[in-house]
Amino acid sequence: MVIDPIHEAVHFLERQLKVKPVVAIILGTGLGGLAKEIDETISITYEQIPGMVTSTVESHKGRLIFGKLNGVEVVAMVGRFHFYEGYSMKEVTFPVRLMKHLGVQKLMVSNASGALNPIYQKGDLMLLDDHINLLPGNPLIGSNKDEEGPRFPDMGRPYDQQMNRVLTDVAAKHQIKIHQGIYAAVSGPNLETRAEYRYLRIIGADVVGMSTVPEVIVANHIGLPCAAISVITDVCDPDNLHPVSLAEIIEVAATAEPVLTKLIVQTVAEL
Ligand code: HPA
After folding, report:
1. Domain boundaries, the chain
2. What angle do the packed helices 89-101 and 5-14 form, to 10 degrees?
3. Is-above-0.85 flag for pTM?
């Protein structure tokens, strides 16, 4: 009998968990600090989990943290997988399917991105209202498991409206400035050329980044409501472009992190 790798991973994790997580949180580049707010934690490295690949990016520590955040049972993914690391789209999105099988009912995703919208500034937050997938692949390519989701999932509203409403209400209540806009996903790992930044702006993107969209496609496929927040780590003005390094991206993400953490901590209890 062939055992589905997801079921093996679920079985492995459930043996160590006393409670089921209800909200999953994926923490993006430089945004792992939310993990410190989680109480009564069980931390499991990716290496330990059957079927899970390990994260190659140094700034991503690579572990699942189970515990309570503001009274809510959560699982946080500290360190995600990117397509540019050489993983397949199925490997990148394996954790999303895994978390759904563990009983998670909502998914919150964070990421670092570069701003194309000229009114956005470094350190700002943007709630994803929609996205443009420019990645050279799609995690749903291949035979479809009809019991998991439809062959042709609707993407008219990839980001859950109720979750976005709660996030904007919580942000307003705590005087947290947050834009709403469109995220374009590219493969990277190189940053974009000036011509590419112009193109991305023309096609309607407010920010550009190298993650999130595969996970969101799978969340939509399996009927897992999700929301995503971007931290603007650099400004991509093609007429005044400054070179950016990963170190700078991480530095800016770290300065915005306390605000993002506050927003997520306050939001989980209201979802
Ligand atoms: N481009 C793509 N991905 C990014 C950027 C960017 O400018 N900044 C952070 N992630």
Report:
1. 5-268
2. 40
3. yes
